[in-house]
UniProtKB/TrEMBL annotation:
Part of the signal recognition particle protein translocation system, which is composed of SRP and FtsY. Residues 335-348 form the SRP54-type proteins GTP-binding domain. This is Signal recognition particle receptor FtsY. Keywords: Cell membrane, Cytoplasm, GTP-binding, Hydrolase, Membrane, Nucleotide-binding, Receptor. It is a peripheral membrane protein. GTP binds at residues 168-175, 250-254, 314-317.
Length: 361
């Protein structure tokens, strides 16, 4: 066999193909600029794609810490300045510390209690340097939040309906919070239903419908202007027939001093008591953290007219007043059950004293 001839034939064929390609490029000049990748380049590109690092999922604590950025920046920068500027621990240091705690909306009573206990611990532990106060202060703040041993778990029991009535003034983020709450429960493996009993605010039903779609849960609603108690009656009936675990009821935003709205709330409570006998009950008050001490006033007033079993504090990511949790839970003695630290559907998380104080620092 003549190998030389075969080789020459192959070279000739290759040359012919090159000439054809050159002719095509001359006929179609726009194709001349195309850079066609080789098989080796395609392989390398695929490797690069595969080897791209996977983005780590943000942890609950990281999300909390990010959400409390404004509170932490204001609070810890003031503490750092105080503890590094003062070489000795004296009355001036304690006075300034009180001012810092009050400015973070921790409240007068809680502040006095924290500072008094800090004085005692510093003396007891013979602490001489101001920068050693940090861990002791954190420890006392956590203890202060937990001192009443309040249970902040939502009541659940297998095979038993849990009815959650969500109340609060207009603008605190009630409807949005309900959507996030529904998403949380669904992710925990519970079946959830929503009741659109805010029948007076324009577009409230539509807004809740959007959140129901996002959380992929069922919504029971009537027309705008319908009787809220009738909506809740139908929702209870439907939830019972479908063995739903959790029924979350939206209600109209109301002020404590509006007598007719408070009477309506009383009627809703009676409807639940009558038609959801033996169910687990929760009345959750939603408060806007950006209002600071005004949130404490709202809680006191609502407690005067209806039982509040827990709090949801929203918009913590938009304020430096995160310390308002202290007077709410410590002074008014109502457990904070959830906190909102962002706009996403998964940005509502269970409140934990230790994690919260750690994130503040």
């Amino acid at each position: 066999m003549d190998l030389t001839k075969t080789e020459n034939t192959e070279k000739k064929t290759l040359k012919t193909e090159d000439e054809k390609l050159k002719e095509q490029q001359e006929e179609n000049p726009e194709k001349k600029s195309l850079n066609i990748p080789t098989e080796e380049e395609i392989h390398d590109f695929k490797l690069e794609e595969t080897e791209e690092p996977v983005k780590e999922k943000e942890s609950i604590f990281d999300r909390l810490k990010k959400g409390l950025t404004k509170t932490r920046d204001s609070f810890t920068s003031s503490l750092t300045n105080l503890f590094t500027r003062n070489v000795k621990i004296d009355d001036d240091l304690y006075d300034e510390l009180e001012e810092i705690l009050i400015s973070a909306d921790i409240g007068m009573n809680s502040t006095i209690e924290i500072v008094d206990e800090l004085r005692g611990e510093i003396k007891k532990r013979s602490i001489k340097e101001a920068d050693k106060i940090y861990p002791v202060l954190k420890e006392i703040m956590i203890k202060n939040l937990d001192e009443n041993n309040l249970n902040n778990e939502i009541k659940f029991k297998k095979g038993k309906l849990t009815v959650i009535l969500v109340i609060g003034v207009n603008g605190v983020g009630k409807t949005t919070t309900i959507g996030k709450l529904a998403n949380n429960f669904k992710n925990e493996g519970k079946t959830v239903m929503l009741a659109a009993a805010d029948t007076f605010r324009a577009a409230a039903i539509d807004q809740l419908q959007e959140w129901a779609k996002k959380a992929d849960v069922e919504l029971i609603s009537h027309k705008e202007g319908a009787d809220p108690s009738a909506v809740i009656f139908d929702a209870i009936k439907s939830a019972r027939s479908k063995d739903v675990d959790v029924l979350i009821c939206d209600t109209a935003g109301r002020l404590h001093n509006k007598k007719n709205l408070m009477q309506e709330l009383d009627k809703i409570n009676r409807t639940i008591d009558t038609h959801a006998v033996n169910s687990n009950r929760e009345n959750l008050l939603v408060l806007d953290a950006t209002t600071g001490q005004n949130a404490v006033s709202q809680l006191r007033e609502f407690k005067n007219v209806t039982e509040i079993t827990g709090l949801i504090l929203t918009k913590l990511d938009g304020t430096a007043k995160g310390g308002v949790i202290f007077p709410l839970q410590v002074e008014v003695e109502v457990p904070v059950k959830y906190i909102g630290v962002g706009e996403g559907i998964d940005h509502l998380q269970k409140f934990d004293s230790k994690s919260f104080v750690e994130a503040m620092f």
